[in-house]
Amino acid sequence: MNQRHVPQWCQRLIAPCLAVAVLSTVLAHSARAAGLLIADNGFGGVLEIKVQDVKVAINNGIAVTEVEQVFLNTENRVVEALYTFPVPKGASVSNFSMWIGGKEMTGEVVEKQRARQIYESYKQTRRDPGLLEQVDYKRFEMRVFPIAAGAEQRVKITYAQELDYDHDTATYVYPLASVTTAKVDQRTRGRFALSLEARSEVPIVAMKSPSHGDEFVVAQHAANYWQASLETREGDLSRDLVIVYQMERARTGLDLIASKHAGEDGYFLLTLTAGKELDGPTGGSDYVFVLDASGSMADDGKLSLSRGSIERFVSALDDNDRFELLAFNITSRPLFGSLQAAAAEAKTQAEQFLRAQRAMGGTVLRPAVEAAYRYRREDRPLNVVILSDGMTEPQEQAELVRLMAQRPTNVTVYCVGVGNEVNRPLLTQLAHDAGGLAAFVSAGDDFERQAQAFRRKLMRPAAKRVKLTFQGGDVYDLEPPTLPNLYYGQPIRLYGRYRASGPSQVRVQAEILGSPLDQTIDLELPASDGANPQIDRMWASHRVQRLMDEDRAAGTSSQVSEIVRLCEGYSIVSEYASFIVLENDAEYQRWQIERRNATRIQRDLAAQLALRQQLDQLRQQAADRIGPEVASTASSATPTATGAPPPAPRANAAGQRLVGAPMTAPSPSPRNQDIQVPNFGGGGGGGGGGAVDPLTVLLGLGLAGLGYAARRSKIVGKSL
User: Fold this and answer.
1) H-helix or E-strand spanning residue 498
2) For residue 611, is it left (φ>0), alpha (ψ between -120 and 50) or beta?
């Protein structure tokens, strides 16, 4: 094999269908250490992470993460590399590449078994293959072979994901924490660096890292552009890296982002977000908290965090609410045996019950959910809140999906998962099918904030039976076909395709507090837009996940061929398709692998360059404002007073240290219409946030009414 260069490597996270890297010829023990190199002594070989650079670009709600890593083989013999890391929440991989002979070779996605066969065939001749595959719903593995004695290997992975929002707060998580063993070294021997740049049409007022605190430097380059940076040597990679930023107001309404390439049908993303917070809950509700106390909950402190979540939720219930607690593993254990008023004594009993739970035994969720349903009463809504990692037996998963569809009237199911060792696809599907929502909490985040945000969603009225209907544009293949309920602070995202550009309309229908909402908003579907190529893959990724959900519900594999077709066509890693990197273009031709991803990467690079130029300009403008003011020509000959010190570091409203100079936010563009909404009872309609470009719809969700306004959101997107 050719000597490898000393570059950098990328990553640990990847999208809803990725893969993994490997560093060891035959691995006797396979431990997982959150995106860390896995290589035991003996036959596997000893490898180190020399460099890990992470670049994150967040552009109006979509985050693109690019990770480069350099692995060093410390052995005096050839080894295979094995690298494993958690699946990032809602991520869609856009590239896997490795450096061969000093040249970057991008990978292509092919059917999983075929990719593995191709990889193994090259190992016989000690050529240069790389393989990235999704092992299961929670883990990716990357394999690289061969790595020569004392040589370095550079690898890069890029993925896009939707940011988690709660009202005016956005959260980004770079997952590092995962199950590991004492033998696994969780420190990088070289540099670990993460740079995050966030651009938002709604001005950002604060940014911080709940997980790493002052280890990050935060810079405000403009009202709409902030940056956070961390760099360390021999850093501990056992904790999730969490960054949270707060905007001036909630971004509410209906936002449109499109992607359209010459000669192809277009793609779009519509985001619908509820408006201002309601004045208070609509009345008493009943809650049954279902706590997973099985053995798998002992990992990553999941049981402790789940107990804390319930404690905070129960403490916030008022006198009109009633609740019950059910702990389960292979059997269910109720606290009261009936619904109890949320009085002080009952809350104390709940706290004692929770702290007595221990993680042990298997996971059988279905009987616990059936027991929770029996607490339903005709005159009050029942909210079933499941706190679990979802690691049930495969045969039970189809039963759970059917159980959600058969839930009694007036029952809504919510799911909360903690940490990275969580079956996100299953918990998300269960909550969606039961009219609720799923939340996933990182142990590195501000847990109090996360618990409060989730509680607000449950205690605020939701817009139910939400439906978006398009007129014009020849819109098709919507994902998801059926929309979930709309909760305060939790946006609904709808992806789709369109054949005809130009004017279009979307009809928004929903039921809010028992009253109908029916409004039509004008849209403009662009004839060309190359700024957001990540939307193409994200549409396909959501479609792949839905097909897998349908197979899970039916207990079949009938959709596998269509899943593989989508994965190969859009370069998506899944449990059925993997990324393979070959030595040169001739090798791809030999295996008759079409270079689809190589074409997509060119689009990505063009969008990346455009965004890079915009951010560079904003950063330069901020830099030009630092230091003493430039003297005018008339006074330049007059000596100035010496050494006026530069301004002291500024602080924002949260008292956070900032680097850089402030800039004035761009003025909002005029809205092209205000849409009147019927008054449902008392005061005026709720107002929304406001947007910047021509077409935005502001959805203000209030007790007395709603307000809409329309705009178009032009968002420049892509990775750095």
Assistant:
1) strand 492-498
2) alpha
> Per residue in 368-385, pLDDT tens?
999 999 999 988 889 999
Distance CA 385, CA 403 (A): 15
Do residues 134 and 573 lie in contact, with contact meaning Cβ atoms separated by under 8 Å?
Answer: yes
Tokens, residue 613: 């130029």
Cβ atoms of 128 and 100 within 8 Å: the answer is yes
The span from the CA of 70 to the CA of 51, in Å, is 5
Q: How far apart (Å, rounded) are the C-alpha atoms in residues 622 and 514?
A: 50
Query: Distance between CA atoms of 427 and 176, rounded to whole angstroms?
Result: 21
Q: For the residues of 277-328, what is the DSSP string, one character each?
A: PPSS-SS--EEEEEEE-SGGGGGGGHHHHHHHHHHHHHHH--TT-EEEEEEE
Q: Given its phi and psi angles, is residue 555 left (phi above 0), alpha (psi -120 to 50 degrees) or beta? A: left
The per-residue pLDDT for range 431-461, each reduced to its tens digit, is 888 888 888 877 677 767 777 777 777 777 6
Could you give the dihedral angle defined by the CA atoms of residues 427, 432, 435 and 438, in that order, rounded to the nearest 10 degrees? 50
For residue 347, is pLDDT > 90? yes
DSSP secondary-structure letter at 39? -
Cβ proximity of 123 and 129 under 8 Å: yes
Q: Cα angle vertex 585, ends 132, 266, to 5°?
A: 70
Q: Are 39 and 45 in contact (CB under 8 A)?
A: yes
Query: Does residue 362 contact residue 295 with C-beta atoms inside 8 Å?
Result: yes
> Could you tell me which of 423, 388, 415, 180 has the C-alpha nearest to residue 302?
388
* Helix spans in 331-460 (H): 344-355, 366-373, 394-405, 424-433, 447-459
pLDDT of residue 281: 52
Q: Are strands 515-525 and 673-675 parallel, antiparallel or unpaired?
A: unpaired
Radius of gyration of the chain (CA): 26
- CA-CA distances (angstroms) from residue 319 to 10, 26, 344, 346? 52, 61, 9, 11
Give me the mean pLDDT over the 46-58 stretch.
86
Helix (H, G, I), strand (E, B) or coil at 190: coil
Determine how β-strand 21-23 pairs with β-strand 79-86: antiparallel
β partners of residue 326:
290, 334
More confident residue, 387 or 279: 387
- The single-letter DSSP state of residue 631 is P
Measured at the alpha carbon of residue 295, what is the angle toward residues 137 and 12, in degrees to the nearest 5? 35
560 φ/ψ sector (left φ>0, alpha ψ -120 to 50, else beta): alpha
Other C-beta atoms within 10 Å of 553: how many? 17
Q: CA-CA distances (angstroms) from residue 47 to 84, 372, 397?
A: 13, 50, 38
The predicted model scores a pTM of 0.75
Task: With beta carbons less than 8 A apart as the criterion, state whether 21 and 81 touch.
Answer: yes
Q: What is the pLDDT of residues 98-135, one digit of tens each?
A: 998 888 999 999 999 999 999 989 877 767 788 988 88
